[in-house]
Amino acid sequence: MTRGTFAVASLSVLVTAVACGGGAGVSTPRAQGNARARPVGDGRPPLAVVARAGDARSALAVAISTEGIAPERGAVAGVALAALVEARLAKASSGSDDADLVTVGGWGGWRLRALLGSPASAASLVDAIRTAMLAPVAADDPAMPLVQRKIEALARRPLPDRALADVAQCTGEAFGLGADTPPTAAELETWRGAAHGAARVAFSVAGDETLASAVSDALIRGPAWPAGATIPPSRPSPPAATAVVYDASSELPAGAARVVLVARTATPERAVEPASALGDPRGPLASRLAALDAPARVRSVVATAHGDGGCVAVTLDLAARHLEHEGPARIATAAALARQEITVELADFTPGADPAGQMADRAAEPRDAAERAAWWSLAGRSPEPGDDVHVSLTVGLAAPRDTGTSASVPAAELRTEIDRATMAWHAPVVEARTRVERGQGETWILLASPCGTTGEAGDAGSGAAAAMAASLQAAASAGDAQIEPFVSSDGLGVLAHGPARPGESAQAHARRLSDLAARAFAADALEGGTISHARTTLLAHTTEIDGRLLAVAGGALAQGHASWFVPLGTRMGLASLADDDVATRAGTLRSGTLRVAVLASEDQAQADAAVRAVDRWIARRPGEVRGCPSAPAVKSHPGTYAVDLPPGARSAVLLTLPLQTTDPAARASATWLAAVLDGADGLLAHALGTPVDGGRALASAWSAAVIGPPRSPALAIRLVADDASLDAAVAQTRGLLDRVRQGALRDEDLARATRTTGRAQLSASLDPRMRTLALWRDEAPLQAPSLEALRTFAASVLHDDALVIVAARPPRRRP
Fold first, then answer.
1. 477-518: per-residue pLDDT in tens?
2. How many helices (H) and strands (E) does the chain have?
3. Residues 362, 276: contact at Cβ < 8 Å?
4. Which residues lie closer than 8 Å to 611 by C-beta, 6 or more apart?
């Protein structure tokens, strides 16, 4: 096995379990670990000591590298040397109180580990190991029969295909090459002399100080070790751009596929540390793969440290039932996605101060801790300049049933699809708008579909339910971040914001928030519980008087598209939705245009990191064209409509007029016109708030606003009044609108509206939530229109015959 596998063998097993859903993950590393190098003098293997308390016994581990020794024989050298020492120690350790002494060989190295008894037996074990490793191999060596049996067993476990040799070199697994023959005594002696030297051997002890001292004293008082052969650089040159394809029919069910990605780095910790994130069943890699048309399962993640860098091998499986249609494209999409995610995880990783100590600290038991520390003593950095991540790709294809072919798809076609998919994943998909606001307490990220409610008709509220369900799912794992749904007629999505955590870099902060927003809205399947919760919340809104008024008015202003005015949905639309309908709507939003706005609190690099993190969650296919559905032409249906209220409720009415606001000047005029009418000193207040004939005012409340932009904007006036005076209030309002249409606006009306609008714009500019929304919409502050422009606009839109009036009344008492 390779040095790296032994250096992190226990981590590899744990990460594999996590990838398959059976583990608890690796704990968060501390800044400084417990592994320490202890001096043992020149000419001796290094010794690492891991201080641990609470274990029933301490543990000893020895790591030996065979990299560069008989590389053409694969794992034979490591397995043979392990068997040699095992046979010699079996006799030497007879009667010892040390327990569970195990030797295991593999591709690129071998390892030994044991539990330690008393200090005396620990010293004796070190002496025995030295003797067993350094004694020359004779032709009649008693260990040769065990060596032969081990190599014969290795030959019965061949690599499924020689194409996987690079994978085995990375992971260190003990596979044979199919025709492995036992070495002669002379060959074994050559290998032993090259491998069992101080430069290729490392000791480690995990446990109490007494046994650690016994081991170090034994190494110090023993004779010096030979140097051994220098470990040659083994890190291959950057892999070829094309994938290696092999027949995996012996490994997989018929028609299935296996994708193996091997990523090599110049530093071992860059490969090993991110492995737990790659193997996390709820992590970005597993979640993104599960969201594909052909879901891929992370089978294993094995991270290893080598003498000249690090390596991580990620294995994915795709089921045959998902590859019956567009098999090459689906395999290629999964492979390209995994390549991108691995590259991002490894490239973004920041090494800690003490990787060896942190690795050993995570071990559950002392033998694992000692083994990790020993192998890490032999790990080193690549002499290559820079620290690029080089990823190679191997794809195994199982022949479909009842065919005589050796693979389910032609290899050339698959390579072409992988090239296309890789290019697609490199091309950004999300529209990005960023701004840096240095010194702010939080970073804000809004990811949403600018298609908004355009595609909704009878399913009014389905997009709002999708956005709300996504935010609920994200909030469950958000920690100290805040996740909110964003629902409007021109946008549906998720807003994430929050402060940086202690010690968190600006870019890591941005990626964390981006992952929360993007995986919820663009990747993870919506769960039935969150969809039901979202629909229930939205249905409650539809029972409110304002929601009912808007639903009826919206249906009249844009028939069949009420959600253009009430994006939270209508009672009829939400009640008719099933969970699958909301999930389908979410899929439609994800496959269309997506836009992200980032208010970064540090620098542009932080904003760029946020955009990259969001973009990587968005599934894409080569050649796809994203867009929004065309908004159908709609016609307003003026008239008076009724909404029934329960007995005793206050009456209310909504008067709406369609507007034309296709340019900034028209939007400004519409906003100022609403401000002229609104407010405690607005025209509506003067018309409705003054007592009539010494009695009560016509209305108790009133307001004016622009609703429904950008697709079907309208001026909405809301009145609340006693049922007896409601009709008079409506008549008075219609008369006011007619006077305004005929030019009744004055300079003081414009000035008052300018002050009101200015205060609203200032309030919005002080709110980072509103600034994020304005950035997403690319909105600039509106400029006040002239009095003449406002009069002209009012004359063009305030037509009484265009009014849609919705009156909500309780049942009238009969005389």
1. 899 999 999 999 999 999 999 999 998 999 989 999 999 999
2. 28, 21
3. no
4. 428, 430, 432, 434, 514, 596, 598
Residue recorded with tokens 């000249």: 308
Let me know if 517 is exposed, middle or buried by CB neighbors in 10 A (0-12, 13-18, 19+): buried
Structure tokens at 574: 């939400």
Task: Answer whether 306's CB lies under 8 Å from 4's CB.
Answer: yes
Classify 431-616 by CATH class. Answer: alpha beta
659 near 670, Cβ under 8 Å? Answer: yes
The DSSP secondary structure of 559-577, one letter per residue, reads TT-GGGT-TT--HHHHHT-
441-477 residue pLDDT tens: 999 999 999 999 998 888 999 999 999 999 999 998 8
Q: List the Cα angle 600/604/606 in 5-degree steps.
A: 60
Q: Please tell me if the domain spanning 3-221 has the same topology as the one spanning 639-809.
A: yes
Between CA 250 and CA 260, with CA 256 as vertex, the angle to 5 degrees is 80
Q: What is the pLDDT of residue 30?
A: 33
What are the boundaries of each domain within the chain?
3-221, 244-351+378-426, 431-616, 639-809
3-state SS, 507-545, equals HHHHHHHHHHHHHHHHHCCCCHHHHHHHHHHHHHHHCCH
For 238-282, the pLDDT digits (tens) are 455 578 888 998 899 999 999 999 998 888 888 888 888 899 988
Among residues 78, 60, 61, 266, the alpha carbon closest in space to that of 172 is found at: 78
Residues 618, 518 contacting (CB under 8 angstroms): yes
* Type of residue at 354: D
558 phi, psi to nearest 5 deg:
-145, 85
Distance of CA 294 to the CA centre of its chain: 18
The pLDDT tens digits of the residues spanning 645-665 come to 887 778 899 999 998 777 888
Residue 384 backbone zone (phi > 0: left; psi -120 to 50: alpha; other: beta): beta
Rounded to the nearest 5 degrees, what angle is found at the Cα of 83, between the Cα atoms of 79 and 88? 155
- The number of CA neighbours under 13 Å toward the Cβ of 126 is 32
Q: Which CATH architecture has domain 639-809?
A: 2-Layer Sandwich (3.30)
Q: Which fold has domain 3-221?
A: Cytochrome Bc1 Complex; Chain A, domain 1 (3.30.830)
Q: What is the pLDDT of residue 364?
A: 78
